[in-house]
């Protein structure tokens, strides 16, 4: 499972990129929170030679198509991120016919995932935390989606999104999910463990003590 750093904050993104993550995704709320326009966001990270960079479009089919064309003029390898809707499905299918990669987000059910696959979406952003808060067994649904994709060899990647805690992240890593859209804070937390810290301190103490004795 590979990580997409899920952030609109430049400092967070830059640090994640130095740690090996090479994919960036964000949503309109993140753009607003970090006071960055979507065009500036795309222009900034288009220079990084990322494996994955998405930008989100909003509105009717016509509005989203116009937004997508503007964004693709900035970066022609951009993945267009689309909220699930009938207009969104129409847009995904139209962009596919032009050779444009798309990601569909706000997916919560198997039925929505199947509809997105039929519309030739390239990445399925399936929400875990929000779905579990709603009362659904999100992990089971996502696992079923992954198994269906593998059984049929559909040309689509799964992305676990709305990940709220380390327990969810650990379970996802053990599954066959392609990507996890991981928030910066959760990524940093996943790197920490008290036994790693204590072991590091022991090895450092022994190293310097041994160096002083020789």
What does this protein look like?
It is built from 11 helices and 8 strands. The protein is α/β, with parallel strands linked by helices and 214 residues long. It has an 8-stranded parallel β-barrel, surrounded by 7 helices.
Show the helix and strand layout:
Elements: E1 2-6, H1 10-18, E2 23-25, H2 28-33, H3 38-46, E3 52-57, H4 61-74, E4 79-83, H5 86-97, E5 102-107, H6 110-118, E6 123-127, H7 129-134, H8 138-152, E7 157-161, H9 166-174, E8 179-182, H10 184-190, H11 194-212
Parallel strand pairs: 1-2, 1-8, 2-3, 3-4, 4-5, 5-6, 6-7, 7-8
Coarse shape: globular
Question: Using only CA atoms, what is the Rg?
Answer: 20 Å
Low-confidence sequence ranges: none
Order of helices and strands: EHEHHEHEHEHEHHEHEHH
Q: What is the first-to-last residue Cα distance?
A: 45 Å
Strand coverage percent: 15-25%
Bin the helical content. Answer: 40-55%
How are the strands of the biggest sheet laid out side by side? 1-2-3-4-5-6-7-8
